[in-house]
Design a protein that fits this description.
208 residues; eight-stranded parallel beta sheet; mainly beta; globular
């Protein structure tokens, strides 16, 4: 499936129990649309996204691979997400789940994101919902200035069991950012950060 100069490749609004499986999607974002996103869902519960390949080229800051807004109980398994994006901003990843998207299971996925604009921030995965489970994923981000592999903002989440997490940037690179998160467990992962200036394998505060 090739989608060129578009705002969405797949959009799900208000549906439940949808399964999206076995697709190969190449998505080039619409030139003037900062909200362009390959996979978008809102108010859609029990979605299952399995064994898909999604390649994204963004043209504006804040373009995304995945954006889930107020979607409960989503399941992502064995997908490959590869993107070249200008930037995402901090707390707003290329793969993004908002604070109304809880009980996410994100297992055995590849997320590989390259930020293309120097001076900006790129995050590969960001989630703000509660009770998120991330296991056995490969999460990579490379950006010219500030890069975050995972930004976790919710409560009672687990990042464990063999995730490979890598962030690189000449200026600042962070593997897992937990600032603002509460009761999040990070255990049994490979975390590698590379930067000529500031590096943070884990960054958080006293609530973590």
């Amino acid at each position: 499936i090739n989608i060129d100069n578009a705002s969405r490749a797949i959009s799900i609004e208000g549906a439940k129990n949808v399964k999206i499986m076995g697709n190969n999607i190449t998505f080039n974002a619409k030139n003037d649309d900062a909200t362009a996103c390959a996979i978008y869902a809102t108010a859609a519960d029990n979605l299952s996204f399995q064994s898909n390949i999604v390649r994204v080229t963004g043209n504006k800051s804040s373009n995304k691979i995945v954006s889930f807004v107020d979607c409960m109980d989503a399941y992502f398994y064995d997908n490959a997400f590869v993107a070249s994006l200008p930037s995402t901003g901090y707390q707003d990843g290329a793969v993004y789940f908002n604070d109304g998207s809880s009980n996410l299971r994100f297992i055995k996925n590849l997320v590989d994101v390259t930020g293309t604009v120097n001076g900006d921030t790129t995050a590969a995965v960001a989630f703000a919902g509660n009770n998120v489970t991330m296991e056995n994923n490969d999460i990579f981000v490379d950006n010219g200035t500030y890069s975050y592999a995972i930004v976790a903002l919710g409560t009672n989440s687990t990042i464990s069991n063999g995730n490979s997490i890598k962030a690189s940037s000449p200026n600042y690179a962070c593997g897992v950012n937990l600032e603002g998160s509460d009761l999040t467990v990070v255990d049994g992962n490979e975390i590698i950060v590379s930067s000529d200036a500031v590096r943070g394998v884990l960054y958080g505060d006293e609530s973590v």
